[in-house]
Amino acid sequence: MTVAMAGVMDRTHRWMFGLGAAAASLLFASYVAALEEGTQAPALAAPALGTSARVDLSRHRGSVVVVDFWASWCEPCAQAMPALERIYQRYRGQGLVVIGVSEDDAERNARSFLSRTPVSFPIVLDADHSIAGRYRPGTMPSTFVIDRQGVVRHIHSGYRPGDAAALERQIRALL
């Protein structure tokens, strides 16, 4: 084989590899596409961390529900959690429910985080990521605001200054 032919073969292989990688990326993206606003909230039922109580989203039909996915290693989660607690304390009497979903693989990591950043709303541990598999959070934290009929109305990805005010406005509008 000549040097010129080897160069053509090399370019062809790179092009085929690139095409295959692009196809795989599209397939993966369609498989893990995030849950969309306006869709029915997926099921969520799991034991509450630290209690024998069971958290079940279906029991909260008629309430506005915030489902927040977080992890102990997530710095923005540590900033978001106190804001969620304040919002929960302010509106729980009006029908707001907040459910925290820890994506930690180890319960001790979630408990350690909660000892530094305590909250009064229930937390579930999703170590096998089965809940996340249904909601498909794009980042940590990811916050889903669900209306009284069980429809996802707002999705917040990440946490930045000002997000708490926007989240509170959206919750108030649904209450």
Notes on the protein architecture:
By secondary structure, the chain is an alpha/beta fold. It has two domains: 1-31; 45-174, Glutaredoxin (3-Layer(aba) Sandwich), CATH 3.40.30. 42% of the residues lie in helices and 19% in strands. It has five helices and seven strands; from the N terminus they run H-E-E-E-H-E-H-E-H-E-E-H. The chain has helices spanning 3-31, 75-91, 107-116, 130-135, 163-174; strands spanning 45-47, 54-56, 64-70, 96-102, 123-125, 142-146, 152-157. The strands form two sheets. The protein has a five-stranded mixed sheet with strand order 5-4-3-6-7, covered by helices on one side. The longest helix is centred in the N-terminal third of the chain and has 29 residues, at 3-31. The radius of gyration is 21 Å and the shape is globular. The model is unreliable at 5-9 and 12-32 (pLDDT under 50).
